[in-house]
Design goal:
single chain, two-stranded parallel sheet, 20 helices, 7 strands, binds 2-acetamido-2-deoxy-beta-D-glucopyranose, At1g61900-like, signal, SPARK, At1g61900_C
């Protein structure tokens, strides 16, 4: 793209946004102005029409093209010169991280892409540097400089400048913490390398999350390493003390770095992202606010379904501005909220009553008021000069939220086929009562993004 053209476009957008930022009407969805600048491409976005074909929809997200991470100058990173890591060893991971953690989108992408990719990059950087240093950890001084340098590099490529906060990474995370062994040769002599590499050299994220082959091998290796010089203070050797558990955990990080030193960076990245997807898909990252309003309107016997659904609707809209979640996380969130509601005396299936879908738990995207659930498999945001930042939404998700029948059991990908019901044809036709009221938060997010560049 010609530079003159993109600059004009930037100016137009800035003027437009300055106007809209002053217009507080703009933040809620139903403003007439805002959604117009935030277009979603419709190529494959037809989930409501043909839920039976297997949809592979791509939902290019609203980032206007002037915000080019790689062609715009975001400044030259100010490096400390005191970090021993070799950044070129993880060059392409750094680029991927910069997009996954892009500017003010980072908090919304934190749990589905940004932080897992940021963590993986740090592990690979240390693993690769051990090829020269023979050490699988940095000392505290180096760790501080390195974390800051990595953030500098990422910010210079468009990433949010606060990644350590967003992803709760501190310099200690790059050190040995309490693990007693960090020397590569020593670890080679303690662990069964061929066993570890056989289990973790390549993983299939779907089966790994079920059978945990690699995760078990990592725990096993970490336990073996942690036992070096370890004298159990407990008389009963079978009991593991809390300190020892922490130590094993810290040694797991060392084992991951060891793995990243034995694999090429790209393969290591795949393994690390696969492992973190197993972990995140077992959780619901949303924060549930107080639910007294629902329990008042929907508790015990529901006398006024409209009031009950209004309360549900306003409650769910508070979940919808938190972050993107994966489809499996949405199942977990639905189960968790259902459980909490049942504890608050809401005994009837209010999901059914109020037509709550799984995607209603997700951040809402675009003027379609459509939820965007991320795939459960590791997935990245991508950048291209014409459409900006894009990512895949799993739109095969016009699925009614299942009302939990017993206690909360985290869903894993092992059970996915049994837990996600077949898409009911009626759902899309009847989505009215609830879905029309969803609010759009990404308008707000993109306004923030653009504001950053003013
Ligand atoms: C840094 O890594 C790159 C790519 O892996 C390699 O070619 C280069 O030799 C390394 N530089 C140093 C100083 O280790
Ligand atoms: C990473 O991005 C930089 C510019 O930010 C670019 O020069 C470099 O070629 C990219 N590297 C890879 C491996 O994509
Ligand atoms: C960290 O390592 C460097 C180089 O080996 C050394 O100069 C520095 O004193 C160490 N810092 C600490 C706190 O151990
Ligand atoms: C970093 O360490 C803190 C504890 O100091 C821990 O809570 C956090 O989860 C760690 N972060 C990562 C990414 O491992
Ligand atoms: C851990 O130690 C046990 C007992 O020595 C050994 O059988 C096992 O293979 C080791 N595990 C790994 C991953 O090295
Ligand atoms: C390492 O593990 C492999 C496969 O589990 C096993 O065949 C081999 O005997 C082990 N090697 C050692 C030294 O324990
Ligand atoms: C409960 O409803 C009241 C009145 O509609 C509202 O002001 C309040 O913010 C709601 N509380 C929560 C936690 O949603
Ligand atoms: C998101 O929801 C919370 C809780 O209701 C609210 O306080 C906050 O203002 C909302 N943020 C946005 C950007 O809409
Ligand atoms: C649920 O109902 C019981 C009996 O009606 C009542 O004692 C209890 O306080 C209610 N709990 C909540 C959270 O409303
Ligand atoms: C899968 O589902 C079955 C029954 O529905 C349950 O017993 C089992 O614990 C689930 N497995 C996982 C890993 O969640």
């Amino acid at each position: 793209m010609k530079e003159g053209v993109s600059q004009t476009l930037i100016l137009q957008l800035i003027v437009f946004l300055l106007l809209s930022l002053h217009d507080s009407q703009c933040i809620p969805l139903r403003s007439t102005v805002c959604p117009a600048i935030l277009e979603i491409k419709h190529d494959a976005l037809t989930p409501d029409i043909s839920p039976s074909v297997d949809p592979q929809p791509f939902l290019p997200l609203l980032a206007p093209s002037p915000l080019m991470p790689f062609t715009n100058n975001y400044g030259v990173p100010k490096l400390s010169g005191l970090c021993p890591l070799n950044f070129s060893a993880a060059e392409s991971m750094l680029n991927t991280t910069a997009i996954d953690c892009w500017a003010s989108f980072a908090p919304y992408l934190a749990n589905v892409a940004c932080c897992p990719q940021f963590d993986a990059t740090l592990v690979i950087l240390i693993g690769q540097s051990s090829l020269y240093s023979q050490k699988l950890a940095l000392n505290v001084t180096h760790a501080r400089h390195c974390l800051s340098d990595v953030e500098q590099i990422l910010t210079s490529r468009g990433a949010n400048e606060n990644l350590h906060k967003i992803c709760s990474v501190n310099p200690e995370n790059l050190t040995e913490a309490s693990c007693p062994v960090i020397d590569v040769h020593e670890i080679d002599s303690i662990v069964n390398s061929s066993r570890l590499l056989a289990a973790c050299g390549r993983i299939d994220p779907v089966s790994e999350c079920c059978n945990q082959f690699c995760q078990n091998a990592i725990s096993d290796a970490a336990r073996n390493i942690s036992l070096k010089n370890y004298v159990s203070s407990s008389l009963d050797g079978a009991l593991i003390s809390p300190e020892h558990l922490v130590m094993i955990d810290d040694c797991k990080s060392i084992v991951l770095r060891w793995l990243a030193s034995k694999l090429d960076p790209l393969s290591a990245n795949g393994v690390l992202r696969g492992l973190s997807s197993c972990k995140i898909n077992k959780e619901c990252p949303l924060v549930f606010p107080d639910m007294r309003n629902i329990s008042k309107e929907c508790g015990n016997v529901i006398s006024n379904p409209t009031a009950c659904c209004n309360a549900m609707e306003s409650y769910v809209s508070q979940l919808q501005n938190q972050s993107f979640i994966t489809n499996l996380q949405a199942l977990n969130c639905a189960a968790l909220l259902g459980m909490k509601l049942q504890k608050a005396n809401v005994s009837s299936n209010v999901y059914n009553l109020c037509h709550i879908n799984l995607k209603d738990f997700s951040l809402q995207v675009g003027s379609q008021e459509s939820g965007c659930l991320w795939p459960s498999l590791p997935s990245d945001a991508t950048y291209d000069a014409t459409s900006g930042i894009s990512f895949i939404c799993d739109l095969n998700d016009n699925v009614a939220a299942p009302w939990p029948s017993t206690s909360f059991v985290p869903t894993s990908s092992c059970n996915i086929t049994t837990k996600i019901p077949a898409l009911p044809k009626a759902t899309s036709a009847e989505s009215g009562l609830y879905q029309k009221e969803l609010t759009l938060s990404l308008v707000f997010a993109s306004l923030l993004v653009l504001k950053l560049f003013l």
